[in-house]
Amino acid sequence: MKPETNAPVLLRGRDITRRWGGLVAVDRVSIELTRGSVHAVIGTNGAGKSTLINILSGEIPPSGGSVELLGQDVTRWAQPRRARAGLGRSYQRNTIYPSFTVFENCRLAAQARTQQAWRWWSDAQRCEASTAAARDAAARAGLDELLERPAGLLSHGQKRQLEIAMCLATAPEVLLLDEPLAGMGAEETERMLALLDQLRAGHAILLVEHDMDAVFRIADRITVMVNGSVIASDVPAAIRTHPQVLTAYLGDH
């Protein structure tokens, strides 16, 4: 499913810059994520991709520029506040709780979305809202038959699915996915791509990924970064033949 022509912009970064001393890790990068689309960010190691996604998620502040989420300026918002406002994030490394079941992992994520400090005495297992959100998220991620399995016993691909399920349990409108295909075999990659395609309709998705075959299959738009700067941002067909991209990154791909 391709994005609607006039789909709303859910996340926007304007002239994002991040300096570490004399090093400019991200240099005036602008990006827009629209509902119904997968926007991939590619580049070699050190290109600034992870720094960009960390700024968009609120984990580190920008040195310059701004971030808007659902029409609000969230530049100075911390990551938990952005998460509660509708932004979900997955990481390069698994961030699951291996001794907890799939269901318990999803329920914890759902509870973080709707924290109710004044109800500290309540039994979490009796919270119908978080229980329903957890079950729904696991089902959408293709894990509904593994709810009672300890997360540590899942395959690598299933753990990546669980991370996305935990994101979905927080009811996000924007998903920032950092290398969700890393380390996957062909069958696991196919399952993940099918999941992303299903999620596309209701979300704006930012995908940072090194698997170029997968990127060109799933992305509606691709932004290419080199040394902290954007050298191209266009539809996949245009990126595939872009002279600067071919020289800097894709080679003979």
Structural write-up:
The chain is an alpha/beta fold and 253 residues long. The chain has two domains: 1-86 and 172-253, Rossmann fold; 99-171, no CATH class. The protein contains nine helices and ten strands. The strands form two sheets. The chain has a six-stranded mixed β-sheet, sandwiched between helices. Strands 2-1-4-5 form a four-stranded antiparallel β-sheet, covered by helices on one side. Helix 3 (102-113) runs parallel beside helix 5. It is globular and about 50 Å long.
Largest sheet: 6 strands, mixed
* Shape verdict: globular
Q: What fraction of residues sit in β-strands?
A: 25-35%
Which structural class should the secondary elements be placed in?
Answer: alpha/beta
CATH class of the largest domain: Alpha Beta
How do the SSEs run, as a string of H and E? EEEHEEHEHHHEHEHEEHH
Counted by DSSP, the helix tally is 9
Q: What is the distance, rounded to the nearest whole angstrom, between the alpha carbons of the first and last residues?
A: 25 Å
Please give the domain count.
Answer: 2
Look at the structure and give the mean pLDDT.
90
Radius of gyration: 18 Å
Major sheet strand order? 6-7-8-3-9-10
CATH fold-type name of the largest domain: Rossmann fold
Please provide a brief summary of the model.
The chain is of the alpha/beta class and 253 residues long. It has helices spanning 49-57, 79-84, 102-113, 128-140, 156-168, 186-200, 212-218, 236-240, 243-250, and strands spanning 9-20, 23-34, 37-42, 64-69, 72-73, 87-90, 174-178, 204-208, 221-226, 229-234.
